[in-house]
């Protein structure tokens, strides 16, 4: 069973842009909302994503933090459009930049639309305590803040956040 | 976008068994419950099914009655087992018999476990008002009774139904 370990950080400044080797526009929606996961009504989120001429259906278990089960399937783009129309909340639009620094691959998500202004970087690790070298543009960790989940951004976008919500991090 | 039109009927007696040309054991679970559909928290159900050495992930829109959008994807059986563990409610076990009568293909679902005693027959049509010839063992229609949805059986199995619930049909 595939296990995914990810940590998520705020991004400071624009220095990362020079190191980006690829950018992929992504549009995604969810068939459920965060509340369904929080109450235990659902044990997995269901996401549909269109990126360029590819589309994917993704299911992730709801364990909090950085360790989750994940299942991902390529589906026809037409199906994805049909499924997107069945999503709850809004569609999340972003540009994902792949940035390699010192042998580590960072995914820098620059959000658009209702989530414009939000930029986060994720790194995938083999274990929760694996050491890595964060580049200078990596800010505070927000792995455990649910409002940063893409699932949460679909129903409560960055535009709706308060200043304290924008300022808080995993450290407090 | 694939559209599926199905009508569902109770089955009386065992005469259909002689005409069954194939039987497929199916085990299925749902990542959401009926309540999520009823409240509009979700616009589609998400089902995982294992049948023999094949497995499928299925998404259906929540329009009531017999007209629905449906998406179905083959997935690895190991994935299906992992996803089944993330389902809500119980697992629905049944034997699906394919019965052809007068050019019409009927799917007769004989439920097991907590749903033992329930046998229903479904027919897939090109339009909601398409005429067809029901064989003698087809009983009253239950297309519009939600408790017969497999999704509903996962959380409230046939064993839990009252006698009036077992007796009622679309006609009343």
TrEMBL record, chains A, B:
The active site is at residue 30. Residues 2-155 form the CYTH domain. InterPro entries: CYTH-like_dom_sf, CYTH_domain, NeuTTM/CthTTM-like. Pfam families: CYTH (PF01928). CDD domains: CYTH-like_CthTTM-like_1. It comes from the Bacteria. PANTHER family: SLR0698 PROTEIN. This is CYTH domain-containing protein.
């Amino acid at each position: 069973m595939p296990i995914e370990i990810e940590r998520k950080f705020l991004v400071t400044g624009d220095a990362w842009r020079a190191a980006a080797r690829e950018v992929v526009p992504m549009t995604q929606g969810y068939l459920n909302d965060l509340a369904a996961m929080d109450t235990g009504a659902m044990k997995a989120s269901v996401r549909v994503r269109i990126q360029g001429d590819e589309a994917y259906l993704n299911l992730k278990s709801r364990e909090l933090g950085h360790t989750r089960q994940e299942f991902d399937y390529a589906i026809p783009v037409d199906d994805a459009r049909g499924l997107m129309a069945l999503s709850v909340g809004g569609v999340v639009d972003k540009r994902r930049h792949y940035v390699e620094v010192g042998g580590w691959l960072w995914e820098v998500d620059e959000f658009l639309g209702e989530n414009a202004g939000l930029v986060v970087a994720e790194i995938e690790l083999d274990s929760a305590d694996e050491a890595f070298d964060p580049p200078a543009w990596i800010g505070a960790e927000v792995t455990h803040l649910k409002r940063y989940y893409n699932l949460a951004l679909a129903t409560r976008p960055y535009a709706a956040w308060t200043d304290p919500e924008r300022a808080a991090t995993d450290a407090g």
